[in-house]
């Protein structure tokens, strides 16, 4: 006897219980603490903060733990939490020129004021598995840190003094807020950058890489990459001055792009820009390449039809929470749609067969 | 500030706003239907129904235009305290409140664009009379026909001709509300 | 769950959604952009419908949630629980007892009344999207009422297959103006859209809300020589014998055995309670 499937509720409860058990894994192994994740999986925490659009290392670490290390799932947890937070106001723009740099490099000048500061980078590590880390009781040698001056000038400012790079005029306009307003096209640069800042790292990387391989090439040099803490300030109208809300660590990348001039612009260097929460070098460099590619129109360049030049394509497909939700939803029941397709295919086949039969008889 | 400027908001905002919205949605979905709407109270001359409409639908993201006698310091203070909406000109407002005469001419309000017909103003028309007789209404939301006491017919006929652009109207009288979207044919 | 506001969303978000719903009702079939929020469930799982329901529900409401016509499909269960927790509304599986019905992919078989609201979950609100992927282009097409592309597509189907090869999410024209996506309901359900209840459509990921007031003119696109055909498979429900309901096909064994049962579980149960039987229930009774 056929019995209609019942008990969805029970099935869900069981699945959740099983999930909790799997998340914990073997209970004879010590449980991860939030502090451990925050301190020792910092780059994962940074990515979750960046794409979750919420600067809170502890919450990001909690999300990673809850998501069993699935970073997109963790980003999702942070995004869903973020939307419930009340909004008290907006900070002033952060001053990255006053950044307390822990890393600052330029690919365009061998030496420059402020110097090259490697900081904590994988760049020159040999990618050899370090089996010492597998053994307990790791000891850390505290290295001597490079002395970094208090403030380090931006590399692009040196070029700007000579008039060799396109000047980016400061704007007093309040940038649009993607999290509060639906995306509207054409999107101005502020909106594009905002969208890229929270876009999926892998997507942004792929898009940036495609420009390097010729799909909308922009001849990018990393003018500067800097990582460090900046203070966040907010104007309090009642007080008449700005108060310091605390510090955040960000990664800023400015690319210097060769530009031979267009109908509207003289030959000069142009810029691509990336700014991401935490130490997120790959993402910020990718972001600046994509930013630059998307600027073809305002710089009077040709649209060569490259994917990275297509703002609508990039902005509508870079969000991993939207993408993963829609992609994975196809595993939800679609009996009804499928049934209607089934009927249609049967009907078309039947008719095609009927047409074929008399022909075969001839 | 006078006492009334600080009072007259929702007592329990989430459920009361939800109930108010359902009344508002119902009248917008069913032109000609008159329902009670009395959860909020603003300083005179704003009716309870108009006050509830503003409190339910407006916030710092929506510009309000106060027309004629509705534009008093007390009303401005009430909106500032309870809603926080900017008070703006007729040409840029999202919501306008006033009598039919005070709101004229209708041509001063946003009617949306062909790509975004939703970027139009909603007018809250404070009325002396609100009853199911007078102009005959037909269109979406109306089974056969409905009737509503409208201040005139020509303006609404002209507005309907603009569809999908145009203005949407709420008519308020005391603690009652009716609505007339741009789709309704008025005779 | 006192940590969250009534119906989960904060009041400012609800106001924004409510304004979009009202514009949608005033411009039937037009997709109103709204700043969809990240919900605690994935995009594609009904975040648009959930946001519309959250902005619509009052504490006095009785909510029904269906997915594929059924109340006990896992996602329907999950969404119903969400509102039980966050809005403390009563819930029901009985179509006629519900004041708000959130649905994915079906319209209930039973006629809805003027006091009911049907909220659809919509994945891709743009009916022209599969013909033109660019939002900037489709927006222009709606503005100019330029729907030639859609007619060409449907006519190509006829030329190629003898039929319009769209069986669900079959496009409709609303009040002779906007071409609208009815969400992925089977075309069998399209004629029901001219109904007494208010219909609201929420697309979370795509950030659009649209609406149909009661008794709005909703016409499935067709051609004079190829009129719209809402027909379904010529079977009766094996459980309740209904011949007028949309059916799920169920595979009963690995030898090609199959049967058809109502997709609307409440409709089927009600009929069986009234004593109707189908092939399967007759056999067991005998
Ligand atoms: Zn049945």
TrEMBL record, chain A:
GO molecular function: alpha-D-ribose 1-methylphosphonate 5-triphosphate synthase activity
Protein name (Swiss-Prot/TrEMBL): Alpha-D-ribose 1-methylphosphonate 5-triphosphate synthase subunit PhnI
Keywords: Transferase
GO BP terms, alphabetized: organic phosphonate metabolic process
Highest taxon listed in the record's lineage: Bacteria
Organism: Cognatishimia activa
Pfam families noted in UniProt: PhnI
Alphabetical list of InterPro entries matching this protein: PhnI (IPR008773)
Enzyme class: transferase
Lineage: Bacteria, Pseudomonadati, Pseudomonadota, Alphaproteobacteria, Rhodobacterales
Entry EC no(s): 2.7.8.37
TrEMBL record, chain C:
Catalytic activity: alpha-D-ribose 1-methylphosphonate 5-phosphate + AH2 + S-adenosyl-L-methionine = alpha-D-ribose 1,2-cyclic phosphate 5-phosphate + methane + 5'-deoxyadenosine + L-methionine + A + H(+)
Gene Ontology biological process terms from the UniProt entry: organic phosphonate catabolic process
InterPro entries reported in the protein's UniProt record: PhnJ
GO MF annotations in UniProt: 4 iron, 4 sulfur cluster binding; alpha-D-ribose 1-methylphosphonate 5-phosphate C-P-lyase activity; metal ion binding
Enzyme class at the top of the EC tree: lyase
Domain of life: Bacteria
Enzyme nomenclature, EC number: 4.7.1.1
Pfam family, one: PhnJ
UniProt keyword list: 4Fe-4S, Iron, Iron-sulfur, Lyase, Metal-binding, S-adenosyl-L-methionine
UniProt keyword Transcription regulation present: no
Claim: Cell membrane is one of the keywords in the record: no
Family the UniProt entry places it in: Belongs to the PhnJ family.
Function: Catalyzes the breakage of the C-P bond in alpha-D-ribose 1-methylphosphonate 5-phosphate (PRPn) forming alpha-D-ribose.
Protein name per Swiss-Prot or TrEMBL: Alpha-D-ribose 1-methylphosphonate 5-phosphate C-P lyase
Biological source species: Cognatishimia activa
């Amino acid at each position: 006897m056929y019995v209609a499937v019942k008990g969805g509720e029970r099935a869900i409860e069981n699945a959740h219980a099983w999930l909790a058990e799997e998340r914990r894994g073997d209970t004879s192994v010590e449980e991860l603490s939030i502090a451990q994740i925050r301190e020792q999986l910092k780059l994962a925490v940074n990515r979750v903060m960046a794409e979750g659009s919420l600067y809170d290392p502890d919450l990001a670490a909690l999300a990673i733990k809850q998501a069993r290390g699935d970073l997109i799932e963790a980003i999702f947890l942070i995004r869903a939490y973020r939307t419930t937070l009340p909004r008290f106001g907006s900070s002033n723009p952060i001053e990255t020129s006053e950044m307390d740099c822990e890393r600052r490099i330029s690919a365009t000048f061998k030496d420059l004021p402020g110097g090259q500061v490697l900081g904590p980078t994988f760049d020159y590590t040999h990618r050899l598995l370090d089996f010492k880390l597998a053994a307990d009781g790791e000891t850390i040698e505290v290295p001597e840190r490079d002395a970094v001056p208090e403030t380090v000038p931006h590399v692009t400012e040196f070029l700007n003094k000579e008039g060799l790079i396109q000047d980016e005029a400061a704007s007093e306009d309040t940038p649009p807020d993607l999290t509060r307003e639906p995306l509207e096209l054409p999107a101005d640069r502020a909106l594009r950058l905002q969208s890229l800042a929270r876009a999926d790292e892998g997507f942004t990387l792929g898009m940036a890489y495609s420009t390097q391989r010729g799909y909308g090439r922009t001849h990018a040099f990393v003018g500067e990459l800097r990582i460090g803490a900046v203070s966040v300030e907010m104007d309090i109208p009642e007080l008449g001055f700005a108060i310091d809300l605390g510090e955040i660590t960000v990664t800023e990348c400015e690319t210097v792009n060769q530009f031979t001039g267009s109908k509207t612009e003289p030959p000069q260097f142009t810029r691509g820009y990336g700014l991401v929460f935490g130490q997120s070098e790959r993402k910020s460099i990718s972001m600046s390449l994509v930013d630059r590619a998307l600027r073809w129109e305002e710089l009077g360049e040709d649209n060569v039809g490259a994917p990275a030049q297509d703002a609508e394509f990039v902005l509508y497909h870079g969000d991993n929470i939207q993408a993963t939700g829609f992609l994975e939803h196809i595993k939800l029941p679609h009996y009804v749609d499928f049934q209607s397709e089934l009927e249609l295919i049967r009907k078309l086949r039947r008719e095609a067969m009927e047409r074929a039969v008399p022909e075969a008889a001839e | 500030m006078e006492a009334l400027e600080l009072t007259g908001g929702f007592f329990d905002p989430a459920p009361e706003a939800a109930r108010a919205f359902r009344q508002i949605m119902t009248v917008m979905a069913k032109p000609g239907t008159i329902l009670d709407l009395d959860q909020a109270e603003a300083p005179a001359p704003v009716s309870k129904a108009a006050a509830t409409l503003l409190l339910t639908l407006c916030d710092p993201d929506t510009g309000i235009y106060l027309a004629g006698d509705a534009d008093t310091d007390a009303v401005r203070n009430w909106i500032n305290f309870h809603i926080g909406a900017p008070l703006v000109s007729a040409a840029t407002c999202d919501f306008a409140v006033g009598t039919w005469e005070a709101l004229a001419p209708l041509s001063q309000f946003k009617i949306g664009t062909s790509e975004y017909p939703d970027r139009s103003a909603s007018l809250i028309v404070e009325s002396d009379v609100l009853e199911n007789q007078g102009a005959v209404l037909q269109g979406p939301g109306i089974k056969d026909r409905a009737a509503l006491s409208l201040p005139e017919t020509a303006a609404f006929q002209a507005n309907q001709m603009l569809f999908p652009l145009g203005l949407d109207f709420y008519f308020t009288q005391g603690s009652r509300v009716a609505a007339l979207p741009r789709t309704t044919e008025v005779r | 769950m006192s940590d969250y506001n009534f119906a989960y969303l904060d009041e400012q978000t609800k106001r924004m959604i409510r304004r979009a719903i009202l514009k949608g009702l005033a411009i039937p079939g037009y997709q109103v952009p709204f700043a969809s929020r990240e919900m605690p469930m994935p995009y594609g799982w009904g975040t648009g419908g959930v946001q519309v329901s959250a902005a619509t529900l009052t504490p006095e409401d009785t909510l029904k949630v269906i997915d594929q016509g059924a109340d006990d499909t896992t996602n329907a269960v999950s969404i119903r629980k969400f509102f039980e927790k966050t809005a403390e509304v009563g819930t029901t599986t009985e179509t006629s007892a519900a004041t708000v019905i959130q649905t994915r992919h079906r319209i209930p078989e039973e006629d809805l009344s003027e006091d009911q609201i049907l909220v659809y979950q919509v994945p891709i609100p743009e009916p022209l999207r599969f013909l033109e992927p660019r939002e900037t282009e489709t927006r222009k097409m709606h503005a100019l009422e330029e729907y030639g592309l859609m007619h060409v597509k449907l006519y190509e189907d006829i030329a190629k297959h003898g039929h319009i090869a769209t069986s669900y999410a079959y496009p409709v024209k609303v009040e002779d103006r906007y071409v609208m996506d009815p969400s992925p309901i089977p075309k069998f359900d399209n004629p029901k859209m001219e109904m007494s209840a208010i219909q609201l459509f929420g697309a979370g990921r795509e950030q659009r809300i649209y609406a149909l007031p009661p008794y709005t003119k909703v016409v499935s696109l067709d051609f004079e020589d190829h009129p719209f055909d809402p027909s379904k498979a010529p079977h009766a429900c094996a459980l309740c014998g209904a011949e007028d309901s949309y059916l799920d096909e169920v595979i009963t064994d690995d030898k090609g055995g199959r049967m058809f049962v109502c997709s609307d579980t409440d409709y089927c149960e009600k009929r069986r309670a009234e004593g109707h039987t189908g092939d399967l229930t007759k056999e067991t009774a005998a």
